[in-house]
Design brief:
The complex is a heterodimer of chains A (111) and B (324).
Chain A: H1 3-25, E1 30-31, H2 32-41, H3 48-60, E2 64-71, E3 74-81, H4 83-109
Antiparallel strand pairs in A: 1-3, 2-3
Chain B: H1 3-13, H2 17-42, H3 48-58, H4 61-68, H5 80-108, H6 114-146, H7 175-192, H8 194-197, H9 200-205, E1 208-210, H10 212-215, H11 218-237, H12 243-265, E2 270-272, H13 281-315
Antiparallel strand pairs in B: 1-2
The chains are: A alpha+beta (111), B mainly alpha (324).
Chain lengths: 111, 324
């Protein structure tokens, strides 16, 4: 398989998971760069150009609350899960776990 | 203006006015955090090249803006089949009307040659087609946005039972065939009944006219052509060859075959009106009669082909064969 095809498939595979990862990381308030670092610390490297617009889109959908705050001599926009976001995260987590279990079974059986 | 300001300004220019300041402010705050982190890593202030590298990694301003405000297609992929169907029919009808309009001009104005007529059809079709294309796209966009789209467009409430019973590939009647047949019928009707729509001056200038022998058959030809128009419109509404449609097609082709064979056997199809001397009229007439005979023979093939297809449908065979 070519590297290009692998990258494309990997991108598709990660697309849905990224939303879950971002929602899961925003149980505590984070600003853009701190969120990226938090995800990186967990081993998930997301390009800034992808992460920041994604966070904003989730906020536009009402899943995140946001607030501008002054910190370390600079203003930053902090995001945190809204009530709707909390409920959605709970459902998506269950969905993910079920899917993960199914996939693990399929992948193990196929070996 | 430093590099960062220049970059943020460029991104903002690509964004809608309402979100411009807010997104620009947030993007700037995020990039400043990134530059701070870089400064912490290196222990010195970031150089212009390093700042440029960070900004370039974010992407071109237009790409960054597009990520924040993704462009939504005017017609969603769900509606694309209905959109393509409506578009193909609308453009087909536009082409048909343009062909008939150009045919009228061609028959009225003697100095037009075939090439000019083709160019006129193309130019007219491009002009009107652009309007039709834009109108349909706008209608789909607005109705989808307002949620007023009819159920058939989004295939809501479809049933497997309603799907066409197509056994063979040839059963699908192509839109291009229907348009061609309708154009042909329209053109011949205009030709036959030219005395009804041509001006007196244009009629006086005609150098040839139908002979009395063929004129006797023109009412029959007219009835047959009108029946064909009705048949092709029916085919357009249900574009699938069924046994009934094949029977009707065999019948109409049989009648056309008889008429064109009779035309080929007449002494003359055209007569000189006396408005001007026509050199080689006899040769031209002979050529047209030969053409009528050739077409009658071709219709024999079509009748045989449809009969063969009818037999296939009757037997309900799954074999997907068709004659060459």
């Amino acid at each position: 398989m070519s590297e290009e095809r692998l990258d494309k498939m990997r991108l598709e595979l990660r697309r849905g998971a990224l939303v879950l990862a971002v929602l899961g990381s925003l149980r505590q308030a984070q600003y853009g760069y701190s969120l990226r670092k938090a995800l990186l610390d967990h081993g998930l490297d997301i390009d800034e150009g992808t992460l920041y617009p994604l966070v904003r889109r989730l906020a536009d959908q009402g899943l995140l609350d946001s607030e501008w705050q002054q910190g370390e001599g600079r203003e930053r926009r902090y995001y945190i899960l809204s009530q709707e976001g909390v409920e959605l995260l709970e459902k998506l987590t269950q969905e993910w776990q079920a899917l993960n279990g199914t996939l693990t079974t399929i992948l193990e059986t196929g070996r | 203006m430093n590099l960062l300001q220049k970059y943020i300004h460029a991104v903002k220019q690509e964004l809608p006015l309402a979100q411009r300041e807010d997104i620009g402010r947030e993007l700037q705050a995020n990039i400043l955090d990134q530059l701070d982190a870089l400064q912490e890593q290196t222990g010195r202030e970031a150089s212009q090249d390093e700042i440029a590298a960070v900004l370039e990694k974010h992407g071109h301003p237009s790409q960054v803006a597009a990520r924040y405000m993704p462009v939504t297609p005017l017609v969603s992929s769900d509606l694309m089949p209905a959109y393509k169907l409506v578009m193909s029919y609308a453009l087909g009808i536009t082409l048909l009307l343009q062909i008939l309009k150009s045919a009228v001009v061609y028959l009225q104005v003697g100095h037009y040659n075939t090439w000019q007529v083709v160019m006129q059809i193309l130019a007219g079709f491009v002009e009107k087609g652009a309007l039709v294309f834009t109108s349909i796209t706008v209608v789909f966009y607005l109705t989808a946005k307002s949620g007023m789209l009819p159920d058939w467009a989004s295939n809501k409430g479809w049933r497997v039972q309603d799907l066409p019973e197509q056994e063979y590939d040839w059963q699908k009647i192509r839109g291009s065939d229907i348009i061609t047949d309708l154009s042909g019928c329209g053109f011949i009707l205009l030709l036959i009944w030219h005395k009804l729509w041509m001006s007196a001056a244009a009629l006086q200038q005609l150098r040839v006219d139908f002979s009395p022998a063929i004129t006797a058959y023109l009412p029959w030809m007219t009835v047959l052509l009108l029946a064909s128009v009705a048949f092709y419109i029916w085919c357009a509404s249900q574009p699938l060859w069924s046994k009934l449609k094949l029977q009707l097609n065999i019948l109409q082709n049989g009648l056309y075959m008889i008429l064109f064979f009779i035309f080929s056997q007449l002494d003359a199809l055209m007569v000189d009106t006396g408005a001007a001397t026509i050199f080689g009229l006899q040769h031209l007439d002979k050529g047209i009669r030969m053409g009528c005979l050739g077409y009658a023979i071709y219709l024999v093939y079509e009748i045989w082909r449809d009969a063969w297809r009818y037999k296939l449908l009757s037997q309900q065979q799954v074999t997907k064969k068709m004659p060459a």
